[in-house]
Amino acid sequence: MSLGSSRPQGWGRTRAALGLAAAGAVLWVGAAPAAEKAPDGRQIFRFDTFGDERLWTDTLRMHEVIPKAVDPTTALSVGLKVDSDALPPGLIESADLKSPATTVALLKLDAVVGVKGTVTSEGGKDTLTRVGITCALCHSTVDDSVAPGIGKRLDGWPNRSLNPGAIIALSPALDADKKKVYQSWGAGKYDPRFNQDGKSFPVLIPPAYGLAAVAHDTYTADGDISYWNNYVAVTQMGGQGAFKDPRLGIDVKPQGPDLVKSKLPALKAYQHSLARPAARAGSFDRAAAERGRDVFSGAARCASCHSGSAFTDDKTHAPEETGMEATYAARSATKRYRTTPLRALWQHAPYFHDGSASDLAAVVDHYAGALKLSLTPAQKNDLIEYLKSI
Asked: Of 3, 35, 172, 217, which is most buried, counting CB atoms within 10 Å of its CB?
């Protein structure tokens, strides 16, 4: 398809201009026009659609669906989030949360995380004319400080309550068969290859934090974070840009100016600035975690792959090496899975790319079986407590 509403304004700068007069070679110094503002990675991540309104508005016609059928209660039920910092005082308390008009008002305020709407006003009535999505839709959530689904933005946190398939299935432009596929994915999952190969195998929306020291940013290590940002912006979000990967047989050319490529460096810099959130106080047993650190490095052999500050050796593995299913990898460019960087494991259950491990106990049991480890119940418990602390 990886979020407050105060937006950094960037900065402008002026510079002296030096020139030689054509006649007499006279040196002159004068003020030049202000330089263009540097791209703002956070602004791009939170609010830039890359021109994907051409998909969400022109093709899927979501600007028609929202004013008719998506009230705030419905929006929250499919995992959309509201940025409380973008709201005027008292709005939530006084607003009709059963009215789609309230959703339009929230879009006008840039308060719906990851959804960008163009709202025009005429005769006192607001009309949603264009709608698109941003990176923040899937790769941000809120802290629920106001109400469930309403609070301050948490950039980089995977939105595991978001149901992208259910949202897409609202489109009147889709036939019944496609709607059925989208509706089957469930919350927290998305298939970033379905519209390329026609197969459906949704994977978990991953965290977009803690990646600064990681070489392989995605499940199958097809490319670095800018490769994936480009892929998603063009082939999934429907942004106006170019993407080419002969390994996958994909060659998308921009329709008009490329609105993606120039923003990739700033977007990468912002995502790499997002540190993994620390484990919450009291969320794990410290004494057991200290013992579990030794199990991690010793009997469980976790550190043989999950090494270094990012807990990854930056290598890839055939699915059978670690007992993973092979379907999703087979649809990728590498046909392999990366060594996943371990970061804030307490925050984003379930686990593995397909969500097949419901909790950390299931993760430990999987590897104990796949790698034929001999771990006692006490060692497993200590290891789980250590994983919670990472």
From this structure: 3
